[in-house]
Amino acid sequence: MFYIPVNFTGIFCFYSITISNNGKYIKGFIKNILLGDGFMLRSKDFLLMDVLDIKGKKIGYIKDLLVDFNGGRVEGFVISTYKLFQGDLYVMTEDIIFFNKSMIAHNCVKDKRFELKQLRSMDVLNKYGDIIGMVEDILFDWNSFKIKGVLVSTGFIRNFVMGKKIILINRLILGEENLWCYGDCNKLSLVSMPHKLMMEVGCDEKEV
């Protein structure tokens, strides 16, 4: 089990990751996080972030992500503008100059693409048609914007007791209404710290 410090939107926290003995498919993923050469971000790290043009003028704020799921990449961001009746604009990743607490982009387009909200809340099914959980978010590389995995919620109680799951994108197929996971979909889990502490207490009690 690894304990990974993750800095999301300025809040430093720890996630623990459990790997099964045959977890060869995720070793590269874990290596990237631990070494920092593929720092992972989630959609919530960008939501409500201000977007400015190269002159420093506010264009709007980010309300969603543009996703090419089959290509395994975040294509850009959906911008809700501050101008009335203008409608949404889209910033593609290649047009981003800089982002931290705000994003600076040198171009916006109006071409509508597949948005993350269309993926969020989809059921994730295994090869037998059983529901594993529901899509909550995606994890992607901060530099290349390549999607590494999908964060799957298994329900409020199970999230607390068992932890959420991350399924690598190369194990998933996007259907019309669901995501299908083939192979072993239980190789990587996010476990909350309260759960970890309870497990350690349980282990101590058994040893006494």
Task: Name some characteristics of this structure.
single chain; SH3 type barrels; 2 domains; ten-stranded mixed sheet; six-stranded mixed sheet; 16 strands; disordered N terminus; disordered C terminus
Question: Describe it for me?
Answer:
The protein has helices at residues 27-35, 116-119, 156-161, 193-207, and strands at 2-8, 11-19, 40-42, 50-52, 58-68, 73-81, 89-92, 96-99, 102-105, 123-125, 131-141, 147-153, 164-168, 172-174, 178-181, 188-191. With 208 residues, the protein is of the alpha+beta class. Strands 1, 2, 3, 10, 11, 12, 13, 14, 15 and 16 form a ten-stranded mixed β-sheet that branches. The protein has four helices and 16 strands. The chain is 16% helix and 44% strand. The protein folds into two domains: 12-41 and 119-207, PRC-barrel domain (SH3 type barrels, Roll), CATH 2.30.30; 43-117, Roll (SH3 type barrels), CATH 2.30.30.240. The longest helix has 15 residues, at 193-207.
Number of strands: 16
Instruction: Name the poorly predicted regions.
Output: 1-37, 191-208
Q: Classify the beta-strand content into a percent band.
A: 35-45%
Give the topology string: H per helix, E per strand: EEHEEEEEEEHEEEHEEEEH
Mean pLDDT figure: 76
The largest sheet, given as strand count, sense and whether it forms a barrel, is: 10 strands, mixed
| Top-tier CATH class of the largest domain | Mainly Beta
**Named CATH architecture of the largest domain:** Roll
Classified in CATH, the superfamily of the largest domain is: PRC-barrel domain
Shape: elongated
Q: Tell me the span between the first and last alpha carbons.
A: 23 Å
Radius of gyration: 19 Å
- CATH fold title of the largest domain: SH3 type barrels
> Considering DSSP H and I runs of 4 or more, what fraction of the residues is helical?
10-25%
Q: What's the domain count?
A: 2
Structural class: alpha+beta
Please report the number of helical segments.
4
Oligomer classification: single chain
